[in-house]
Specification:
The protein has helices spanning 2-9, 12-29, 74-77, 92-105, and strands at 51-52, 57-58, 64-66, 71-72. The chain is mostly helical. The longest helix is centred in the first third of the chain and has 18 residues, at 12-29.
């Protein structure tokens, strides 16, 4: 307690708290993303989100609406309405690519 009071009196505690606050805000505003390597060539990857039911889907009265083994692809029911581009916002080349894609293809986007 004495050390804490001493640090409070000489301003060291306030300085430490401000540094902690600054780092916390920086981490919130710029969270560390996944550490993926940059692509060396353009590619498009298809994703199939289909699932195979391990249990039957039933109504409350027991009526089976999807039996075990049914394969369901949610995109067949409701397709994606937007194209996704994942970039590293700290990499100027990737940002420039995304901006050009937005301009050229009128992609509706949400910036995070």
């Amino acid at each position: 307690m004495n050390k804490l009071k001493e640090k409070e009196a000489n301003g060291e505690l306030a300085k430490h708290n401000e540094e902690f606050k600054r780092r916390s805000i920086a981490n919130i505003e710029n969270p560390k993303g996944a550490d993926f390597p940059s692509a060396l060539e353009n590619s498009i990857r298809k994703f199939d989100p289909s699932i195979t039911l391990k249990e039957a889907v039933k109504l409350e009265d027991g009526t089976v609406i999807h039996p075990v083994g049914t394969v369901i692809n949610p995109l067949a029911i409701r397709p994606l309405s937007k194209r996704f581009i994942f970039i590293d916002g700290t990499d100027e080349q990737q940002v420039e690519y995304a901006v050009n894609e937005l301009k050229n293809q009128a992609i509706v986007t949400r910036w995070y």
